[in-house]
Design brief:
250 residues, 5-stranded antiparallel beta sheet, single chain, 8 helices, alpha/beta
């Protein structure tokens, strides 16, 4: 079996050492083909040498990992971000369904990220994913045409946020109900999407419902009260959240 080749971009020498040691210990199938501390060095290597995985830090000294992605339009490997907590960067990563690991690295999370990155069953359009990463990192939440990546077992869907009518939770799964009576189910809890969608006009009306305020048709008082959404869908609003009604219709 051919080794899985990876490249590391991180401005901290110790961070590179820690990741290399963790890969050697817990992911022996992964070969570190190279590493760099600056974007220019990383680009020089990656433009000439094919790699399967790019481990990418978000915040470098005077640069970001996104500066490298802007130059790697045709990169075909998987991307795994390795970063200290960075809210803005992680929001961008979540929008694009890209993996990330928080420092200090957890060995089990590293192993799982490598497994998913090398899962050949999943078709990846890396060009679209990189474009979405950059857009999500740079653009403001007020832009209505922003997209989010929703990952099913064998496909990544790039969906306009404004086309989401509401989301419904089923334990660790979330179903996205879209305009045109389309549905997409992802294996992530609804809480993962609440924070990133709230700035775009979404509200949690119930433990199981996250709704797009722009897609509300009316509030029905019968049966304890519920929201009628576009597409003739019904979304529950709990008693504890009835105080949101005025806000939802403004």
């Amino acid at each position: 079996m051919n080794p899985i080749r990876c490249f590391i971009l991180d401005d901290e020498i110790q961070a590179v050492h820690n990741l290399r040691l963790a890969l050697e210990t817990h992911c022996p199938q992964v070969e570190v083909a190279g590493y760099a501390h600056h974007v220019s060095e990383a680009y020089d290597f990656l433009s000439k040498q094919p790699t399967d995985i790019l481990f990418l830090d978000i915040r470098l000294q005077n640069e970001t990992g996104f500066d490298l992605l802007k130059q790697l339009h045709h990169y075909q490997g998987s991307i795994i971000f390795t970063t200290a907590y960075d809210l803005y960067g992680i929001q961008a990563i979540k929008f694009s369904a890209t993996d990330y690991l928080l420092k200090p690295l957890d060995h089990l999370e590293l192993t799982e990220a490598v497994r998913k990155a090398t899962d050949k069953k999943k078709e990846r359009d890396q060009g679209a994913q990189i474009a979405m990463l950059i857009q999500s990192f740079e653009n403001l939440p007020s832009q209505r045409q922003k997209k989010i990546a929703l990952t099913e077992a064998s496909e990544i869907h790039y969906v306009l946020i404004d086309d989401i009518v509401f989301c419904k939770s089923d334990n660790s799964y979330t179903t996205f109900y879209l305009t045109g009576n389309k549905k997409i189910t992802v294996s992530k809890p609804i809480s993962d999407y609440e924070n990133i969608l709230e700035p775009y006009g979404f509200a949690r009306t119930h433990q199981s419902y996250l709704i797009n305020k722009n897609r509300i048709v009316s509030f029905k008082k019968e049966d304890g009260g519920y929201l009628l959404m576009e597409g003739n869908y019904q979304a529950i609003i709990s008693k504890q959240r009835k105080h949101l009604l005025k806000e939802l219709f403004t």
